[in-house]
Amino acid sequence: MMPPTPLAALLVLPATPAPRPRLGLAPSSRHARGTVVRAAALRALPRRLEFWHPRLAAVESGPPSSQSSAPPPQTGVESQDATSGFGGGGGDGGGDTDLGWVRVFPHVLTASMANFLFGYHIGVMNGPIEDIARELGFQGNPFLQGLVVSIFIVGAFFGSLGSSALVDYLGCKRTLQIDSIPLILGAFISNIVVPVGIGIGVNTVLVPLYISEVAPTKYRGSLGTLCQIGTCLGIIAALSLGIPSESDPHWWRTMLYAACVPGFLIVAGMQFAVESPRWLAKVGRLDDARKVVEDIWGASEAEKAIEEMKSVVVNDDSQASWSELLSEPHNRVALIGGSLFFLQQFAGINGVLYFSSLTFRDVGIASGILASLYVGITNFGGALVASNLMDKQGRKNLLIGSYLGMAFAMFLIVFSISFPLDEDVGHTLSITGTLLYIFTFALGAGPVTGIIIPELSSARTRLKVMGFSFTVHWVCNFLVGLYFLELVKLFGVGAVYAGFGGVSLLTALFAYNFIVETKGRSLEEIEMSLSPCAPGEPK
User: Rounded to whole angstroms, how far apart are CA atoms 298 and 91?
Assistant: First the structure.
């Protein structure tokens, strides 16, 4: 979620570090190796990575010296190991016959229907917003128009906050089913959007977490982009369904009624989906977790996978509290997650998506919904490219390249608006810049943000970190949706988009300094690398 893009030079993969030693070493051996790794990592550690514990930062700083006693890896070894699934790296794949993702795909595809609903609700308020304003009596008031678009986000805020308690008690599978009920009811009522928002808030936290815990390591990044792909398809569906609203001012109600269909599909489909093996292990159901691993990753991976899971959840059957996000290393991950979503929203993506029909109209595109549909298709195309690159180029490279591309696109639009150009040339540059912005967002800023946060989080606090990060997302999302039109009215599109471009540059710098690569490493390996005291080391 191909052909070369203008950002190809930004997406060059750095030299792959040597593989980490396998888990399960005797405590004394693991401690001895860990000491050597930390010493070598500290010598090579770039200053920008000192934010992280040296054990995790060492992954980007060079090959760990603990590998010196091991024979050098042979060509293709990493790829062969990755094909096995859970413990493998995120290499390019095992060739044309590599179908290791097939067994898990139906499960993550069903869960990603929740993101389809999220995208649908973004798109459903895009085209017919003026019809809604006319029928409800606030046409011409940009503040209230923005409020209608943003109101369901209030419910999403509380849904994100409460999601961890639901999943801790019910598990991912049952929570997705139960949480679809307010989505279905809200679609039937059509005018009550807060219940829909609550459902969306829970699902947007739960789906990337579920995919990260169910997917084999080798395919975790590519399968994680299904969240972005689902959102894109939801936007496209809503915009396509919204075309009749240009001639029928009451069509928006039909669009809201149609939103109940994906909810029914989630309830029915998740009945056949597997539960997260990490959640099963966390609550002590190791036999059930082993069965899930055998079914979707292969029997050869079951024992090793369960041992890795046990290594991070052993003697830890209590639930995490919010206060734990204030202690190391969880505070770093929470800060990274909240910052990424804060910067993502103020880089302007939802301002562009929510109000693309109005923005295109300002630069001369007659059919706002049709123009927004082109935006949705471009978003989908970028997500498909990202799915192909995520486990090859890595999360960090895609994130940096994505935000640099978004900044360039925003400044291109500002140039077309602010300087005297031929009308046709100006319109062409504006459209090109908008589509380039959407495409580069879908390459990294969209999918990577949701993927990397659960990867960096520990099994104990993963739900809390995700809930906090998405709470920041919804607050910023609400503010952008509420005030975007007001800002455009006060300062003009050029000034607002210049601000979006500046934030995009800032985010690229942030990602360069503070994001570490997680490609090709199991969640348990990442967690033990991040922890100040890995299992087997003295505290």
Answer: 19
